[in-house]
Amino acid sequence: MALPRYAARTSEGIASLYETVKTMAVQFQFKPGQRINEVELARQLNVSRTPLREVLNQLMVEGFVTRAVNRGFIGRPLDAKQIHSLYEFRSVLECGIVRVACQRATDEQLAVLRAAVQASRDVPEDADATRLLALDESFHVSLARLTGNEEFVRSLESVNARIHFVRWIDMRQGRRSHTQAEHLQIVDALQARDEALLQTLMGRHIGRRLDQITDVIRTGFSTIYMRDQLEDQA
């Protein structure tokens, strides 16, 4: 993978370095359980180990990498129970979000949201999974913004990043047709100001059983290691 070079001595450089290393972690370019070679990564990014370690420490706090005694930083696990816990947290968070949004969003804001959902339906089902997932995440963040509470937005963006890879696999497996129909149902319930229905719809929309997550993770592991083989052959 060709990586950009950074002027990591500046705050802008640190921010850029953080975003790149975070993207690598989100996409599991650091394999689960694999020791991150700081020397090699610093060389690839053309930075010293000091700013890189600062970034890795921040990502460890945020749950994107882990650390072990005598091994240093390690790629985070792709673990079904952990992912299930994140989905559970997201479900509770977003049920709270739609409840507050139902109370605070104006009719005009909800009309804009409906128009955005309807426009996104024009994107074909076989479009790139990254694009489809971006549309889905945008819808949920838009809901959070309707609350007028930035803490909801920050919390949602954080959990979305940690389950991004699993949700990307979901999109590749054709879940998008279900999500689009469910998005419109959620908007309908918002416009009807039906809080009880919103709780049901959002819980069903986000909820994932442990066996479903396990199946997606199996595909995720195959994707991670097949990706490396394809890159080696390129």
TrEMBL record:
Residues 11-78 form the HTH gntR-type domain. Gene3D superfamilies: GntR ligand-binding domain-like, Winged helix-like DNA-binding domain superfamily/Winged helix DNA-binding domain. The keyword Ligase does not apply. InterPro entries: GntR_C, TF_FadR/GntR_C, Tscrpt_reg_HTH_GntR, WH-like_DNA-bd_sf, WH_DNA-bd_sf. The keyword Mitochondrion does not apply. Pfam families: FCD (PF07729), GntR (PF00392). Keywords: DNA-binding, Transcription, Transcription regulation. GO terms for molecular function: DNA binding; DNA-binding transcription factor activity. PANTHER family: GNTR FAMILY REGULATORY PROTEIN, TRANSCRIPTIONAL REGULATOR, GNTR FAMILY. This is GntR family transcriptional regulator. It comes from Bordetella genomosp. 9. The lineage of its organism: Bacteria, Pseudomonadati, Pseudomonadota, Betaproteobacteria, Burkholderiales.
